[in-house]
Amino acid sequence: MSAASEFAVLLKNRGKAKDKATDTKPALGFLAPWLIGAVCLTFVPMVISLYLSLTKYNMLTSPKFVGLQNYATLLQDTRYLQSLKVTFSYVIISVPLQLIAALALAVVLDRGMRGLTFYRSAFYLPSMLGGSVAIAVLWKMVFGSDGLFNQALGLFGLDVTQSWIANTATANGTLMVLHIWQFGSPMVIFLAGLRQIPRELYEAASVDGAGKWRQFLSITLPMLSPIIFFNLVMSIINSFQTFTQAFVVSGGTGGPNDATLFYTLYLYMQGFGSMKMGYAAAMAWILVIIVAVLTVINFALSKYWVHYDD
Amino acid sequence: MKSMKKWITAAAAVAAASMALAGCAGGTSVTGGAEVKASDEDVTIRISWWGSDTRVQITEDAIKAFEKEHSNINVETTYNDWSGYWDKLATENAGKNAPDVMQMDELYLASYASQGSLLDLDKTSEYLKLDGMDESLKDMGKVDGTQYAAPISSTAFGVVINNDVVEKLGLTVPDTSAWTWDDLIAFAKQVVQASNGETVGIAPLNNGMTLQLWARQQGENLFTDGKVSISEDALASYLQMAYDWTHGDDPIAGTPDHQAEQASGTLDQSDFATNKQAMIFTQSTQISTYAKAAGTDNMTLVPMPNDDPSNKYGYLKPGMYWAVSSQSKHPAEAAMLVDYLLNNEEVGKTLGTDRGIPSNNSIREILAETSTGTDKQALDFPAQIEDTLGDAPSITPNGASDLDKIIARYNQKVMFGEQSAADAAKAMISELNTAIASA
């Protein structure tokens, strides 16, 4: 992102002054690794996928142009609608819960307790591991019928033998828990944000007789709102792209009974399983639009609750 | 405004560049009608397959022997697990760099052949002999009358019984030589009752080959002339099994949740491989895989239950195929490699029954003489069920490669009571027909 904005600045300044112009070329040279990557690996494939979304393409023969047919078919595809339902409920539930968990932990850790660095690393660890295949496999075992979770319930005298992963009502829930468990990375960002809040504000507030909760609501939250906003936007974008966990936990089927049929998983199944690359490309573009619209809405709403100092 | 203009220019440039790139990717090397002739110069060909570590090991051994005999041919190998294999193969085909020789499955054969991705093996007949196998098996490598693939092996479907589990419960296996579905269910129920529900009797059928067999037991076929031909009633009775076996008192397959969990697990973790299930429907050659996983050789391979003894419902399904890519620059060498893997007796011994019962009859006989235990049961099985074998069915049509996944999905819908078997049958037939029509 920053490389992109620097590039824009470079373009803007080009030719403004002679000495600046001579700077442009070496700068472009330094930017080349990013530029080439962005063009070849992002922009070009995106344009091609936009074209493919208007075709019927099974990868074995050349794409055949079909206009908007793929998009029209999507609206009648009940499994596609199911994948939207699964993904939206996942995002709506797990994103806020994850951010609340991250913020709560950050506030507690910010009090400057002993061994802070240890706790910070320990809580951050799941974020580094959470997206991996290994953790997804572990999750499958933890929430299986003979899993750790049921054994833990057994310690409290609850004899549960159902599999949480294989039950249509709880399968998506276990994946939400997995997402929430990865609260470490927003937490670290919150921690950094908390450090930026001037201590005088709290001192002044306590002199005025404000309690901890009052201080949190009137100082911490408003001062932290740009960070919360950043985390919210990133988290929503990432959650829409959830794939690995659902793929591993359901064995690549989106099961049981399509309960974990995440958007990107269904996209993958259509593209590579059924060899409908055109259809999959159309799905990908709708996902881009969904995420873009949500991000725009987020930005529009942000002016009502995000406070910037300057 | 000015920056807007620049972005438009940039976008146009990107579009132009992408056209250029797309143009570059178009270079192909289709052998088409050209004559297939072996080269004297050094050539490199690539072979790709899916399968376990054991398969990788023995296949590489076989290929090393091939390279020794043909010093000018260098063979590169690539392998993958089942689902990764098909992802990669499709992508490689799209990128025009498909492997010269590829392992093919019945589910995908028609898709690849009808899209022109495979070479007509009659063109390579000088180098690749297919006369070592039964005609009916060889014919299952044909799509629309053209021999696009060479069956590596055949496999039959049966029931494997884990005798350790049965004996531990103090039960005896009934006479299975002519058993009916009721016999099987009754025995499975005994297992569940004797174990207080700790041991599963048997899991319901849920894949393409078993649906085919089920249809044939009702005197129908799953596909005819590239279309779905199973009746709604026959399909509904098949799907109903998933519900009946997981509901009521002492369900013989356990709860729906349990079956769903099993479906997403690996073979090694499955109930049958961990001695928690008495019987399993499976391909005959899988008996040794399960025996190894469960750590017991005390297993028996028996025929499928069948209510009408006069019905010739059985068939030998090509376990896998070798196919040569139509993009191959060295089709003659590719054909030589396939011939070597299929027909060389020494290599036949190396490869054993890992890919199923070898299609080459003389290799099968050699293996039958030397093998023991579960391997021998698998090799002898076709003779055991000979009376039930009928004509080979049509292969899975183009567009229906997802058959197994579709069956599994509707099975779950019925099992979880979300849809009645009749409704699910109707929906599934229409989904399959749409998939075939739109392919």
Automatic annotation (TrEMBL), chain A:
One of its GO terms (cellular component) is plasma membrane. Coiled coil: none annotated. Keywords: Cell membrane, Membrane, Transmembrane, Transmembrane helix, Transport. The keyword Transmembrane helix applies. SUPFAM superfamilies: MetI-like. Its main location: membrane. It is found in: Cell membrane. It comes from the Bacteria. Gene3D superfamilies: MetI-like. GO terms for biological process: transmembrane transport. It is a multi-pass membrane protein. The keyword Transmembrane helix applies. InterPro entries: ABC_transporter_permease, MetI-like, MetI-like_sf. The chain crosses the membrane at residues 28-52, 88-109, 121-139, 176-195, 216-237, 280-301. Residues 84-298 form the ABC transmembrane type-1 domain. Belongs to the binding-protein-dependent transport system permease family. This is ABC transporter permease. It comes from Bifidobacterium oedipodis. The lineage of its organism: Bacteria, Bacillati, Actinomycetota, Actinomycetes, Bifidobacteriales.
UniProtKB/TrEMBL annotation, chain B:
Residues 1-22 form the signal peptide. This is ABC transporter substrate-binding protein. InterPro entries: Bact_solute-bd_prot1, SBP. SUPFAM superfamilies: Periplasmic binding protein-like II. Keywords: Signal. It comes from Bifidobacterium oedipodis.
